[in-house]
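Intended use. Records like the one below are meant for learning the mapping from a protein sequence to its folded structure. Do not use them to infer anything beyond what is encoded.
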Amino acid sequence: MRSRRFVTTLFLAAALLGAGPLAAQTVKVGFLTTYSGPGAAQGDQLDKGAKLYLKLNSGKLPKGVKIDLISRDDTGANPDVAKRIVQELIVRDKVQLLTGFVWTPNAAAIAPLTAEAKVPYISMNAAGVNILNLSPYMARVSFTLWQSVYPLGQWAAKRFKRAYITVSDFAPGHEAQEAFTKGFTDGGGEIIDAVRIPLANPDFVPYMQRVKDSKPDVLFAFNPAGKQATAMMKAYSDLGLHKAGIKYIGPGDITTDEELQGMGDAALGVMTVHHYSAFADRPANKAFVAAYKKEYGEKLNPGFMAVGAWDAMDVIFSVIRAQKGKLDPDKTMDLIKQYKNPNSPRGPIAIDPDTRDIVQNEYLREVRKVGGQLANVELETLATQIKDPWKEFNKKK
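Structure written out for the chain above:
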């Protein structure tokens, strides 16, 4: 009996010793971004935004709960790579949530996996309008091009008669073209020509020359931000389109905050419609920018992708808190549909419960010099708490 009690005591002691680490509830989150290749600058923005939020808010999780952020490199717009990585994250790493992605094709590729495995995915940036229709376990906190570009087209039609369109030749570029065309022509404007530029290794000079030769009143452009935005701006400047009286407009991708200083004075006066500017004077944004600069360097500005990552992490934290770390996928999706945040750096945001898409403000902005540096200055709120117009126009009857 004494021997049996001793053995029992040993087992109890071993169990208690093991209870410490086992008591902690770890939520595994698969984080996918672009760390290598031409899109690494955009992927770095997602990485910085997500990890800054995690660092500053880890104490806001329920007691005993922690997040294991498992980061993976999709290498760029590579759907096959993205699908393989997500399969590994679901099967091998047993992730309970997925987030990230710069690129729409990658997010679309993993949609069937999220539905089959019932693993919720929150898009930090991928903006294709149809992505969320591919799986009921997907939501988005970034944007769609229709949200910014359709109001921009309406605004432009009141000021210009003839427009030329140049967009990158992939799904978001096509959507930007469609949205601007509808907004501009509905307002009485004329599209005199449109061209789609290859996504890989583009040379913008011949395309800008074609624009100049066509003599439009306004050039609407879209590219996937980063270095391509700077290259397109340089071609616009070098060929003298501004001096020829051709106004340059587009969504926020063409003057993204983290690239803006490298564009030089050619960017001055460029008009965009977008949901975020690092120079907005909202208190939540000032605090976010200050924290970002403290963490990554005073010369660095966060762009809209960093904010998308920040807000996605806020959604993740909110569903973890609501479930005290024990996540059920269907409950998670129900909670995401109810998500609202009045104090995002970009302003008030919410998730549309019917579409699982972002609802947010869109701001008319102009590139000006503020304190000796280029800034996207918000002039007015062009659209207040706008849902994705494409989904509004294409509601199922």
